[in-house]
Amino acid sequence: MNIDVKYQEIQARYAKVVEARAKLQGLLEAKRQELFALFDEIKKAGYDPATLKDKKQQLEADLSKQILDYEAKLAEAEAAIKTFESLETINITGPRKK
Questions:
Q1: Which residues contact 43 (CB under 8 A, 6 or more apart)?
Q2: Are 60 and 52 in contact (CB under 8 A)?
Q3: Distances (CA, A) of 70 to 19, 29, 58, 80, 82
Q4: What's the pTM?
Q5: pLDDT tens, position by position, 36-92
Q6: Which band of pLDDT confidence, cut at 50, 70 and 90, is reported for residue 8?
């Protein structure tokens, strides 16, 4: 084993690791800055990033309840229309006057 060759091989590998590490640190810093920008945007919109997930779940629950309430009222209206239509077919109002 030639020590000089081995040393140069290890040096080259080390340089690649250092280069990759620097590149990753740069990418991580860019993502960190993006995250801070998103936090600022969320705060400017009037939300607290720490409670955003809970707020989203609460809003979804409220919306689901509103949809169910609307569907119930819609079903009630449809039933009323169906009842009205069935009354028309048996003509409970008597013959029409000419």
A1: 49
A2: no
A3: 60, 48, 18, 15, 18
A4: 0.48
A5: 999 999 899 988 888 889 989 999 999 999 999 999 999 999 999 998 888 777 665
A6: very high
Q: DSSP string of the chain? A: --HHHHHHHHHHHHHHHHHHHHHHHHHHHHHHHHHHHHHHHHHHTT--TTTHHHHHHHHHHHHHHHHHHHHHHHHHHHHHHHHHHHHHHHTTT-SPP-
CB-based contact 47:37 (threshold 8 Å): no
- Which of 34, 65, 38, 60 is CA-nearest to residue 49? 38
